[in-house]
Amino acid sequence: MMTDNELLRYSRHILLPDIDIAGQQALHDSRVLIVGLGGLGSPVAMYLVAAGVGHLTLVDFDEVDVSNLQRQVVHNENSVGKNKAQSAKDALLKLNPLVHIDTIEEKVPADQWQSMIEQADIVVDCTDNFATRFALNAASYQQKKPLVSAAAIRFEGQLSVFDHRDVSSPCYQCLYSPDGSEDLRCAEAGVVAPIVGVMGSLQALEVIKLIIQSGESLVGRLVLFDAKRHQWREMRLPKDPHCPVCSAS
Length: 249
Ligand SMILES: [Zn+2]
Description:
By secondary structure, the protein is of the alpha/beta class. The chain contains ten helices and eight strands. It has helices at 4-9, 11-14, 20-29, 41-51, 84-95, 113-118, 130-142, 172-175, 186-189, 193-212, and strands spanning 31-35, 55-59, 100-104, 122-125, 147-153, 156-162, 221-226, 231-236.
């Protein structure tokens, strides 16, 4: 049961027939794991907390650096030197004290993602490296949990949803060969500040749609955004029959 305070706080959601009280309650009862509290993780966490997602687990072992503040908007000047998950939690509880937030502030070994994902309803990939993305994908596939994944670099972004509850869904690994992919990081290539805001906000939106079970998800589709020319492209993303993670064998 929601309190009067919650009914008022979330009233613009509750007005929407697609959400209503039942959808808001579903948001309240959901557990979302956010991996990476940088450029993408900032808007993801801020919107999910503002929207009333009841339980968030924030994972980041990194510390806030002054060069992060250009785009990682959940952090501020006083966060420099603090752990990113802790810094984000401090800011998020000021935005909405009614939600529950856990932090994991150490590096997570690849074999420990499964137990962490087991306790979540949805996993949001906001990381910046292929090793973690592949590990998260494999573990969320094993646990049959949806993975909402995005990336942004320079003036470009991409977004997809891998719903591992659905056997026909491709997985993140279907997109890439495990050894042919090289990390391209913002530290080397640069990134325009709002592109992570755009892509992270869309991740939060897809998470909410999955929770309220409304609309059409991005499963089997990859969306690409070229901000310089303001062009959106959508590609069909087939399941790779030889994928080492999700193929039938
Ligand atoms: Zn696959």
